[in-house]
Specification:
- This protein is of the alpha+beta class.
- It has 3 domains: about 50 residues; about 190 residues, Penicillin binding protein transpeptidase fold (Orthogonal Bundle); about 290 residues, Beta-lactamase, CATH 3.40.710.
- The protein has 22 helices and 14 strands.
- Helix 16 packs across helix 19 and helix 16 crosses helix 21.
- It is elongated, with a radius of gyration of 37 Å.
- It starts with 8 loop residues before the first helix and ends in a 19-residue tail after the last helix.
- The N terminus is likely disordered.
Length: about 625
């Protein structure tokens, strides 16, 4: 074989040398293999970065709460108030009608039961449908992808976010059952007009629960997720109806309904009945406002700023309703002719300090001033309980007597409300009939400092002025602390701090605060038992007669400040202590009496104890003095 110009090729090769490396076959095979392995490495690194950017667990799906929300619940789990974009009514999967579930599946994710988070057929189908329509008429995201987006991601339209959403959907499908996924989606999906979830939407659009929705109404709700404002029947009824009909035909195509059912539903006019979202409703307004004010004490500022909290409170909804009814009835029945405009009531379980009912006034939305926690008022004769408790604790007998007669000390001359005198009177009888002069003489005998110390140990937080008129309630207190202090007697001398929060959960469902019941012995058991015995006599034979309950003993004390500006009754049974105040915000005198406060107390307590076992107070000790 000849080479160049007749030179043999072997000679040419030896003269010219081997071909360049880039012309060699092995070079390009090598380059190809390097490229493939490099691509694999790059893909692997990208996949690893994607995996590392995702949450490790899917637990949040089952506990998710939107940011900027606070949900306040009563002791039985009922919702008292919601702040922010929260789902009010969370339904279990079996509480959601099958047709409603089928409507959403038909229009949002036809292969929901068959895919593992991603529906590749659905993606192709959606792209083809949108191309034909020259509009976005169908989405490719599965219900699981939409749930992942709600819980973990924002609505930003980027490739990175979409890839994360798709991978997270696969992880959700690995960890959760289909029913769990569908339940969470139907409870969280935003359906417009402030409605989060199907139960809330049924109320907002049709003012009914999901179980009462018609087939056409179910299809109307299922039509909303892609564009809640565009497909809202409140905004454009024609478009909403057209979209509803698409859902119905899709349900027919998927075999969920018969053709006749679809035709009948399509022929149904689209009628709505608008209601405000239930999350805007508010129960126990004074109490929930109090809870919001308490939250910073228990939740760090950064956590509270993010919100997404569930606050489980101590409130008993049935007792709260009874308290509100009692206050409203008192103002309506007695307020006008006794010339008082406001009333307040608080009920506390004295054994654990839990606030069970709170009514801070006549009408929260007229004035948000809470007369249970914010109003500082003179307690009148209810403060005598602390004077006599100090005396009993010091070893006085309840039969210790002082002369009820005109009396002046350092220029101060106390007067009895009746302007009459009883002569020598025991402190027990003086408490029963609210004799002022004996109370002042007892205060002088035991001293200011011990009385103030005992009152503070029992639960009084306000400043107590060391004056002779302290015995008659001249130093202002609030209803919550006064009621709580009386609870110390109900618990045989142990004071428990009142509180309204049991637990606080963050948006992941983790408990970030749990109630810490603070108990402190304030007085000895014998003192508490003797004082309860004396205060029972106030109810059976004295000024508190209107507070008697038909099936159990009651201990308590009335109180009236100067010119009847404040009307009080604080009373208790072993399981519950309740305080009532009546008066005017501008401190104008009333024409009423503390017996009216006792009536209010009775009306509430009759309801509260209806299903409560009657318990006896501890027996009074035999030895009454020199203890």
């Amino acid at each position: 074989m000849n080479g160049i110009k007749g030179i043999p090729s072997t000679l040419v090769k030896s003269f010219v040398g081997p071909p360049p490396i880039y012309r060699r076959r092995k070079f390009w095979v090598g380059i190809g293999m390097v490229g493939i392995s490099g691509g694999a490495i790059a893909f692997g690194l990208s996949w690893q970065a994607l995996e590392e950017s995702l949450p490790e667990s899917t637990d949040d799906v089952l506990t998710y709460i939107r940011d900027e929300t606070i949900t306040v619940k009563a002791a039985d789990g009922t919702i008292l108030q919601q702040i922010g974009p929260a789902t009010h009514d969370n339904l279990k999967i079996w509480e959601i009608p099958d047709r409603l579930k089928q409507a959403f599946i038909s229009i949002e994710d036809q292969r929901f039961e068959n895919h593992s988070g991603l529906d590749y057929q659905g993606i192709v189908r959606a792209a083809f449908s949108n191309l034909l329509a020259r509009d976005v008429v169908e989405g490719g995201s599965t219900i699981t992808q939409q749930l992942a987006r709600i819980v973990y991601f924002d609505q930003q339209q980027t490739l990175g976010r979409k890839l994360k959403e798709m991978r997270m959907a696969q992880k959700i499908e690995q960890d959760l059952e289909k029913d769990q996924i569908l339940e969470r989606y139907l409870n969280l999906v935003y359906l417009g007009s402030g409605a989060y979830g199907v139960a809330d939407a049924a109320w907002v659009y049709f003012s009914k629960p999901v179980t009462e929705l018609t087939l056409a109404e179910m299809a109307t709700l299922a039509a909303l997720p892609p564009a809640p404002s565009q497909y809202s029947p409140f905004i454009n009824k024609r478009i909403a109806q057209e979209r509803r009909n698409v859902v119905l035909r899709r349900m027919q195509k998927n075999g969920y309904i018969m053709e006749g059912e679809a035709d009948a539903a399509i022929a149904t006019p689209l009628r709505t009945k608008r209601s405000n979202p239930k999350r805007l409703d508010r129960q126990a307004s004074y109490f929930t406002e109090y809870i919001q004010q308490e939250l910073p004490k228990y939740v760090p500022a950064d956590v509270l700023g993010k919100k997404g909290l569930i606050v489980e409170t101590t409130l008993n909804p049935q007792w709260q309703m009874a308290a509100e009814a009692a206050v409203a009835e008192t103002i309506e029945t007695y307020g006008k002719y006794q010339r008082f405009e406001q009333a307040a009531l608080v009920a506390i379980d004295p054994r654990n300090g839990q606030i069970k009912a709170m009514v801070g006034g006549k009408e929260f939305f007229d004035q948000q001033f809470n007369r249970v926690t914010q109003a500082q008022r003179q307690p009148g004769s209810t403060f005598k309980t602390f004077v006599y408790t100090t005396a009993i604790a010091a070893g006085f007998s309840p039969y210790q007597s002082y002369e009820d007669a005109p009396f002046v000390v350092d220029g101060y001359e106390p007067k009895n409300y009746s302007e009459k005198f009883r002569g020598w009177t025991s402190i027990r009888d003086a408490l029963t009939h609210s004799v002022n002069i004996v109370a002042v003489k007892t205060l002088i005998k035991v001293g200011w400092d011990p009385v103030v110390e005992i009152a503070e140990k029992m639960g009084i937080k306000s400043t107590l002025n060391k004056t002779y008129s302290l015995a008659l309630g001249a130093s202002e207190v609030n209803l919550l602390e006064l009621t709580s202090a009386y609870g110390t007697l109900a618990t045989q001398g142990v004071h428990v701090q009142p509180h309204g929060i049991r637990r606080i959960l963050d948006r992941q469902g983790k408990v970030i605060y749990r109630e810490q019941i603070q108990r402190e012995r304030a007085i000895d058991e014998d003192t508490a038992a003797i004082m309860t015995w004396m205060l029972r006599n106030v109810v059976t034979s004295g000024t508190g007669g209107n507070a008697q309950l038909r099936d159990r003993a009651v201990a308590g004390k009335t109180g009236t400040s100067d010119e009847a500006r404040d009307l009080w009754f604080i009373g208790y049974i072993p399981q519950l202590v309740t305080g009532v105040w009546l008066g005017n915000d501008d401190n104008q005198p009333t024409w009423g009496a503390s017996s009216t406060a006792a009536i209010t107390w009775h009306e509430f307590m009759e309801e509260a104890v209806e299903n409560m076992r009657a318990e006896d107070f501890p027996d009074r000790p035999d030895k009454l003095d020199g203890r």
